[in-house]
Design brief:
The chain is an all-alpha fold. It contains 3 helices and no strands. About 75% of the residues lie in helices and about 0% in strands.
Length: about 70
C-alpha cells in the first residue's frame, strides 16, 4: 500500500510540472514596457522625497503591468 501511495504522489507531481516554454529573457516585450513605464512615471511624478519615490515605484509596477497585459492580449 505505501508503494502505491508513493507512485500516485509521484505521478501527480509530474503532472503539475510546467511545460517547457521560451525563456522570459528572450521576450523583449516586458523590457520595453518597463522602460516606457519608467520614462512616463519619472516625467509625471518628479521629486526626490520619500513619498514621491514610493509613488513612482507603484507607478512603475502599475503602468508596466498594464502595458505588458495589453500587448499580450493583442
Amino acid at each position: 500500500m505505501p508503494r502505491w501511495i508513493l507512485a500516485v504522489v509521484l505521478i501527480g507531481a509530474a503532472g503539475v510540472l510546467p511545460a517547457p516554454s521560451t525563456a522570459d529573457a528572450q521576450d523583449k516585450t516586458l523590457v520595453d514596457c518597463l522602460n516606457e513605464a519608467v520614462r512616463s512615471c519619472d516625467a509625471d511624478f518628479e521629486g526626490n522625497d520619500v513619498y514621491m519615490a514610493a509613488v513612482r515605484g507603484y507607478c512603475y509596477m502599475i503602468r508596466g503591468t498594464i502595458c505588458y497585459a495589453s500587448k499580450e492580449v493583442q
